TrEMBL record:
InterPro entries per UniProt: Stress_Response_Reg, XnlR_reg_dom
Superkingdom of the source species: Eukaryota
Subcellular localization: Nucleus
Keyword Membrane among UniProt keywords: no
Biased composition (Pro residues): 614-627
Source organism per UniProt: Colletotrichum salicis
GO MF terms held by the record: sequence-specific DNA binding; zinc ion binding
Biological process (GO), any one: DNA-templated transcription
Protein name: Fungal specific transcription factor
Every Xylanolytic transcriptional activator regulatory domain range: 298-372
Amino acid sequence: MDLFRPSNQPPAADAIRENYIDGLLDEIRRLKTQVASQSASTSTCAPLDDVTSTTTTTAIPSQDTSYTSNREVLSTPTSANPGDNEEPTAMAAAAAAEEAAAAAAGTVAPATATLEVKPWFINANVFRTPILIGEVADAAFSTRFRQVISDPYAPQPRHMLRVNYAPDAELMALVKSSDVAWPTPSRSRFLVEVALKYVARRYHVVRRSAVMRDLEQSIHNPSWGDLMLRSKLWALFAIGELYSTRSIPSEKDFPGMPYFAKASRVLGVLDERPGTDSIEIMLLLSFYSLALNRRYSAFVMSGTAMRMAIVMGLHLNIPESQLRDPDLREHRKRLFWTTYIFDRIWASKLGHPTAIQDSDVGVDLPSEASSDDAVAAARTYAADFEDTAYHVASLRLAALITKTVRSIYGQRGQGEATTLSTRVQQALKDLRADKPPLLTLSTKKCAILATRPILLHILRTQVASWPSATTTTTPETQVPASAITLSEACIRCARHSIRLLTDSWIDGSFATFDYFYTQYLFSALTILAASSLLQDSHGAVGGAGAPNDDKEAFEESVRFLSQLRDAGNFAAQEYCHHVDVMRAELDRFYAKRTGRLEAEQPQQQEQASSYGGVPPPPSHGPGPEPESGPLMTSQFGLGGGLPVRAGAGPTTAGMALTEPSLEELLAQPVLDLQFLEASFYDDLQALYWPDFS
């Protein structure tokens, strides 16, 4: 597998991969030895080389297994021994040895899908610790998508390793280095201005007036300031260089990384009594860590910042009698809410719990300057505390995203009675009721998170209904109209997100190394890849033009992502690995479907001749005709094809959540989505994937 690795990455990654392969070979030998010992206990005449003739306890699908059951076995880790924690992806060679053993023996252990979550671990002799990947992660969804369209009788696609991020060793070397010089006065002013523009327009982390005052002090007196203040400026320099750079020359470090390393020295000793400076630095470092694609580090830092805020009591209102300065009180409030946003958004990207519950928060929302303030004070207030409405909308959306992730992707409790259908419906109702007008991309992302499990399972239902190599008829699939409407909303959001990102690239507002825009791009193009399979000659799910519109948009988005990868964007490099294997799976899928259709064409023409040249009606097989009304049917061509309502047009801004059919659907008391309830939870496992983190 070709890895896109930045030129400044040390060759230690090659050694890691060699150790990984060596560990896999050791695991294969261990499995063979284990099987051999089991064989010896039942038959003393079986030689060691005949280990593949014994029966293993691992559930492996046989070639006679039906498509559905085979897919369930591949999706769900099972083991005959509850005490075993074997790696379900104990890689291709080990899996092949076990499969050969089961096939030779002629017996296969029964595989039963269960609602009990069985974590997947990797062998400790390869990695230091298992790495958990939540289903809510975009990379995990792309893996699920590949698994759905893959050959059910071939080895199941595995999750891609994340190797594109700034390595620990390189950062430690920069921390210890004394070669990083304080920038010149003009350069330092420029970098701070850039950082404040890109950070302050999204979040409130620092007060502009205080930062500019500290910067001028440091320029006129280089020895001025303690470690905390200088670390804050180092962190701002790093962010400023990140957003002012368009690409990385091959011989250069990632933009801002030396400054980031210098700022990280403050992490060596945590303050026993943290102040606002400590929280500000932690948030700035967390924000920059995402650009390095160090998502776990960013999550840990945001959680640490939240705990510092709790220690300071920022989550509660402080009486005016104890803090007279209104600007300081407002800064405390806004700093807490920014920490709240970081904590929730970062956690939602990984599927992890947050550091504080809403019931523990007692601080007021950000507020505007009072009308009786003096003119000069009001001007300073406006510079330090920008767009209050935007920040309030951001924190409300962060809370809504957390609620959506918990409700749809969280594990079910024993006594929980609400269904997935109800929770998806409620999530979309909340989003529609509280949708902030200034956070379009984030709102679209939340809607995609809520609806893409339904899109994925509709695709799985249709793939399962397509004829196999041994069948000659194309069955008709019934999909609830409510599921189709939700899938349309998901696809419309993805299309609109791509258009917004493309426009931002054209007008220059798409920063090359911005983590969020890169993630939005990958999330949306994965939905377009799925949508391209749900198209037929009548058009696409969600309206819109020619049959190949989404396929072409997917390819164009991939080229867009490749440009970011080539510029040195760590996240784009990771996502391009997923895109490469996704495209390979799509090519195999299209080739397989095209071959079947070409083979079926003569028979279809012969059948058509018996109807006077008119194509024959679809065959429903034995039994009554499918019901109309709540169920809609479609006969699949190459692209699969969901039914398309007449009059569906192109997507416009805000259309996905306000389209009349979706509003009517959300007004219904109960959605008809029972067809995917069981399958969703059978596949919603806590995944432990190999990762070089």
